[in-house]
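Write out this protein's structure.
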Amino acid sequence: MYCDTVHGMLVFYQLAISHYCEKIRWALDYKRLAHRTESLLPGLHVARMKKMGLKSSLPVVRHDDTLIQNSSDIITYLDRVFPDRSLSPADATLAREAMEWEAVADEEIGPHVRRICYHQLLEYPDIVVPLLSYGGPWYGRFLLRLIFPKLKDRMRQGMRINDAEVELSRETLDATLEKVRRRLSGREFLVGDEFSRADLAVAALLAPLRMPAKYGLPWPQTLPDSVARVIDTYAGRLTWVDGLYANHR
């Protein structure tokens, strides 16, 4: 899908499994922006990003000749260039608050959810390889199967996925979820009276702990006990996420 000729072409580069990329999938869908999606393979995406003159991280959006990297910067750009159905509140004070909550999501939720989930999922290649390769080139699943032992080690090392770090991530995530709970007491949304980038960011980055269908991944129907226990640990605290996915995704 492409944007009309008035607004130019949008191309969205993603790792389908990434919850930071889910932020942008959601933003593009919410703003009803036609676009083309290119799903890359983890590890192999680095060369593609370098060829584009960028750092290795995804998501990235190309709008004609403009490249935007980093999920928060992408949402800011999309709201500026395509102001319909803005995710940034019109009021300047509320806009700042929304970006502050988005920063909480990006820094205090996203890395820790990723570490907690991968700590379990990387032990189950039959589950995680289809998720890592989803939407990518036809050979992706076969290639990732071949390189998975090395990829697993690189992911564990690069994201500091080990027992000690996971325990610290659980503590950080627990504290942040309590912060979110207090903020939402008596409220529907984190900022103001409307859905915003704050709600989208928090919900998207928590979504791997809920595995919603609208995330767009082929989540496994049956989870190993160790993965199920992690999901169950957070279930009662994330019903708000379910509601946002049901009503705004």
